[in-house]
Amino acid sequence: MLQHPPAEPGMREEDVETPALLLDLDAFEHNLDLMASLLAPTGAKLRAHAKTHKSAVVAMQQIRRGAIGQCVQKVAEAEVLAWGGVPDILVSNEVVGPRKLARLAALARVAKVAVCVDDAAQVAACAAAAEAAGIRLTVLVEIDVGAARCGVPPGPPAVALAEQIAASKHLIFGGLQAYHGSAQHKRAPEQRAESIAAAAEMCRRTVEQLRQRGLDCPIVGGGGTGTFGHEAASGVYNEIQAGSYAFMDADYARNSNPPPFRQSLFVLATVMSRAIPGVAVLDAGHKAVSVDSGMPLLWQRPGLVYTSASDEHGKLEVRDGTAPALGEKLRLVPGHCDPTVDRYDWYVGVRGGRVECLWPIAARGGMA
């Protein structure tokens, strides 16, 4: 159940109940426009990743700026987006289990949907679900291009799966999923470039081997916020799956030559205690901000350092300048935007110090 929103339109930012997830609308819209302009001359299309924003409202704004659709990681995310009007959705992940596949196949009556596989048994299960639903399901082969997580090796193993898909009268071979997640946060730009050059070459060889077997490869998808320019310029990737670009976070900012987007996502927190000299305590701890990629940063308060978190508390050390006042509202830059968004039911959209809108984060949570 959605929680009561922490704000209402017209409210001053300093009156928003905390902790709250703020979206700076000027920076957010700048990021959407910038990504569209950067991809336009490359010919690669944006299939923005909704695992970051989890919102049909955000998805439709990306689509209005030229995104061809969205990708998700779970069937439940696909359902929320499809019911919210998103017309083209790729589950850029493997889906295991007949009930989940049945739900995915049922969505084909609402939107264009596709899914990834990396095992022959998954191909058979997808075919069974499609047959039961009376549809043809588009299926991509995921190849491992360096992340060592999911995906078959490029080349002959990928071709064999593609041929199995193409041979089924209930499936359509959709192409290759080739995402290199760990490359996104390699700190040096030359490391990121090298990783994606290797990934693109694996894709290029696999596409050629598919062609030799008489199979077209409509989609070669991958790319993220840290490397999208390399994939888009490769001449191989034709769909870019960046998601964090819309919001950004502290971990992307740590990259040397970071992505050219503005920080638009913040956790608004209140100073709830000043009992210890040199220390301030916020009402935003583990339940308010993800620390899997490091502690959050204080926005435009360089003398304050967020040093530790517990369930409901975030500890700040005052290392320089004026200590914050009891009751003062501070913006935090999350270390990792995706799991931080997942903690909230609402985006509080702000512009010029005022709340402009509230958007539900309808696909949040550990849904199947």
- What's the architecture of the largest domain, going by CATH? Alpha-Beta Barrel
β-strand percent reads 15-25%
CATH topology of the largest domain: TIM Barrel
Query: What is the number of domains?
Result: 2
Q: With helices defined by DSSP (H or I, 4 residues minimum), what is the helix count?
A: 11
Radius of gyration: 22 Å
The low-confidence parts are none
Largest sheet, strands/sense/barrel? 9 strands, mixed
Overall pLDDT level: 97
Number of strands: 17
CATH superfamily grouping of the largest domain:
Alanine racemase
Specify the helix fraction band: 25-40%
**What distance separates the N and C termini?**
16 Å
Q: Give the SSE order as H and E letters.
A: EHEHHEHEHEHEHEHEHEHEEEEEEHEE
Query: What structural class results from the helix and strand content?
Result: alpha/beta
What's the short version?
The protein is an alpha/beta fold and 368 residues long.
Structure, described:
- By secondary structure, this protein is of the alpha/beta class.
- It folds into two domains: 13-21 and 260-360, Lyase, Ornithine Decarboxylase, Chain A, domain 1, CATH 2.40.37; 43-247, TIM Barrel (Alpha-Beta Barrel), CATH 3.20.20.
- It contains eleven helices and 17 strands.
- Strand 10 and strand 11 (279-282) form a beta hairpin.
- The radius of gyration is 22 Å and the shape is globular.
